[in-house]
């Protein structure tokens, strides 16, 4: 008998509705709170509450259960990321605000403030993910960037859950905060539009990492769901090099990196590094790791051996 994790089909109405309900609910929270900055936190807490219930009662992978210690660790890592994000965003703004504003004026780009607020929010949502799509794709392409970004930390966890959205190495958060700053400054977007886009991004990325089945026809062509992003976390190297867009799967469909299908195991190989090993991944990967960095290292070794033989 196979020991592969069992797949469970969620009730069809849950599978189809959970994703749009989360996004519409997040938007409603932001609007009901008069588009205040703290709406991001409230929408995220409510989204996590719903996703945690769904992961418990209708998990996509029933064998992917979090022990209390694992859940506590993920919460701690998420809180670390949550506090680092605004700090690094402020640093980016201090360094880039003036030169990017000058660039915007030189290019003659007008402010999007003339657009309806919803259009501005969607512009920032899709444009920032367009930038990160290419950053993310480059990280998986070049071994040196994989290591320098610490992206292996995010991929090292076996069996992904909503809380894994915040499992990022501090090195990588430097890159994660960059796209929104670049897009918002170049387009001259206002604070309300940035806040609305941020609400959608933080809630959708949490949903994309959830151990919940999501298959909303139409929406799945445009916005990344858990079914799609789970493949990106596959422990199989080739499968993980697909579905790079964390929020707008549209970019993968347009640029030929989209794939679909079930995933029974996530991670960077057959084992999972310890927490200390995860933090050290930019400097040293376990022998079992199968990543862009390990493959680049193997290619260099083979090339060196080949050169020596000749």
Task: Please characterize this protein's 3D structure.
This protein is an all-alpha fold and 310 residues long. It has one domain (68-206, 230-309). It is built from 14 helices and no strands. It has helices spanning 12-32, 39-57, 68-107, 117-141, 143-149, 151-155, 170-176, 178-187, 191-208, 226-232, 237-240, 250-254, 275-279, 292-309. The longest helix is centred in the first third of the chain and has 40 residues, at 68-107. It is globular. Mean pLDDT is 90; it is low at 1-7.
Layout of helices and strands, plus pairs?
Elements lengths: L11 H21 L6 H19 L10 H40 L9 H25 L1 H7 L1 H5 L14 H7 L1 H10 L3 H18 L17 H7 L4 H4 L9 H5 L20 H5 L12 H18 L1
H/E series = HHHHHHHHHHHHHH
Describe the sheet with the most strands: none
Helix content: 55-70%
Please state roughly what percent of the residues sit in beta strands, choosing from under 5%, 5-15%, 15-25%, 25-35%, 35-45% or over 45%.
under 5%
Mean pLDDT: 90
- DSSP E strands, number: 0
Features:
310 residues, disordered N terminus, single chain, 62% helix
What is shown here, in short?
With about 300 residues, this protein is mainly alpha-helical.
């Amino acid at each position: 008998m196979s020991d592969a994790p069992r797949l469970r089909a969620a009730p069809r109405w849950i599978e189809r509705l959970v994703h749009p309900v989360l996004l519409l609910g997040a938007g409603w929270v932001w609007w009901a709170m008069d588009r205040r900055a703290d709406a991001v936190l409230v929408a995220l807490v409510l989204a996590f509450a719903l996703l945690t219930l769904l992961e418990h009662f209708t998990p996509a992978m029933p064998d992917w259960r979090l022990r209390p210690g694992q859940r506590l660790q993920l919460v701690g890592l998420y809180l670390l990321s949550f506090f680092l994000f605004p700090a690094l965003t402020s640093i980016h703004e201090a360094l880039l605000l003036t030169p990017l504003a000058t660039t915007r004026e030189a290019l003659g780009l007008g402010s999007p403030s003339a657009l309806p607020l919803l259009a501005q929010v969607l512009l920032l949502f899709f444009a920032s993910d367009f930038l990160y799509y290419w950053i993310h794709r480059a990280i998986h392409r070049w071994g040196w960037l994989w290591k320098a970004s610490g992206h292996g930390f995010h991929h090292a966890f076996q069996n992904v859950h909503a809380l894994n959205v915040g499992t990022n190495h501090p090195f990588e958060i430097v890159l994660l905060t960059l796209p929104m700053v670049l897009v918002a400054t170049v387009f001259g977007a206002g604070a309300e539009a940035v806040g609305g886009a941020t609400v959608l991004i933080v809630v959708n990325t949490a949903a994309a990492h959830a151990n919940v089945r999501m298959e909303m026809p139409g929406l799945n062509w445009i916005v990344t769901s858990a079914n799609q992003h789970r493949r990106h976390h596959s422990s199989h190297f080739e499968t993980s090099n697909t579905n790079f867009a964390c929020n707008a799967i549209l970019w993968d469909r347009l640029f030929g990196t989209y794939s679909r299908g079930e995933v029974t195991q996530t991670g960077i190989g057959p084992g999972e590094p310890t927490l200390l090993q995860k933090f050290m991944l930019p400097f040293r990967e376990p022998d079992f790791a199968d990543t862009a960095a390990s493959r680049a290292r193997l290619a260099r070794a083979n090339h060196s051996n080949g050169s020596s033989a000749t």
